[in-house]
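Help wanted!
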Amino acid sequence: MASIINKPVLYSYWRSSCSWRVRIALQLKEIPYEVRSVSLIKAGGEQHSNEYRSVNPMEQVPALQIDGVTLVESMAIMHYLDETRPQRPLLPRDCIKRAKVREICEVIASGIQPLQNLTVLIYVGEEKKNEWAKHWIKRGFSAVEKLLSANAGKYCVGDDITMADCCLIPQVFNARRFHVDLRPYPTILRIDRELENHPAFIASHPNQQPDCPPEATK
Amino acid sequence: MASIINKPVLYSYWRSSCSWRVRIALQLKEIPYEVRSVSLIKAGGEQHSNEYRSVNPMEQVPALQIDGVTLVESMAIMHYLDETRPQRPLLPRDCIKRAKVREICEVIASGIQPLQNLTVLIYVGEEKKNEWAKHWIKRGFSAVEKLLSANAGKYCVGDDITMADCCLIPQVFNARRFHVDLRPYPTILRIDRELENHPAFIASHPNQQPDCPPEATK
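Answered by r_m:
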């Protein structure tokens, strides 16, 4: 397989929750990879450079170069990894459970994250951005909490880690950045605690990234 | 299979682009289904009723009752239909092509639609909503056009209709509602023309829905 010869290259930003999703998946599957940092804040955002635009026309991270192709969009990348590297599957075998995993992923990946990402917050403006982000995170987490109450075991869906957990933990990290009160979401909090000491989640954590500024870990 | 005895029930709103995605998939796979209309505008939005909230905690359409379960979120539903009803596949067999389909889906389903849906536009406010919606559609369509230039055949990825087409055509409909100039996106326009006379896209079109108000089709 090409990936054994050429290590996959992940374009990532330490604090990007979508990059973190893919880092977790790579860690869980024990796929060695090289990180190329794309700073979303330096010089107005390196993701808008001509060079990076040719990697990802959406001008955002992550992007993954693997098996001779460049893939963008975190859910597409995680599905590709799962379909080509079946070790440590990120989806259950049962079709209904797979749908339940994807529901939770989609509430986060379409219903929360896009509304509180950096590009949108810049457009919303400094004055309103915190209230705006909190509003959409709380709305989405209420739905996630209800979906979890019907599906969670040790993790989001049953007792194995899935794509839903790869989406949830980075979103909880974002929620804390925006000072969202997480007490109304006990299942989310329980799963977050369950995974905070998991090696794949530790190694992929924003604070463990080469581009994390030292002051952020204090 | 349960669905042969109990027809699947789709909670749908005629103009909802996410409902339309699922209607296209059901039509392509020739799965008979019953529509229950959820008006997103009547009485402040029927999706916020206690009754509907128990169907979909995100308080949005679509939701599909099928095989004894209720599924929400359009990408999760389309994947479930594809995994349980393999006729007329919505994803290519090749893993890289599947990733390319999912990239286009995700740019639309996470990068465009969530930013221009009704709930967000109400929150943005009457005065700014058109400019806001246009901004995000144009940004996303620029990326979709680039992805298509590398992957499109007769349709979004190759010569078979995929989930990417199920996402693209409803988003083009939305773009027209917001008077987005589509001339900078020739491949999007070509695929839209290619599919406008396809039976599955006609039958699932907003104007063909039982809850479409007569004045909308004029």
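OP: Thanks! One thing I noticed: Strands of chain A lie at 9-12, 34-37, 63-66, 69-72.
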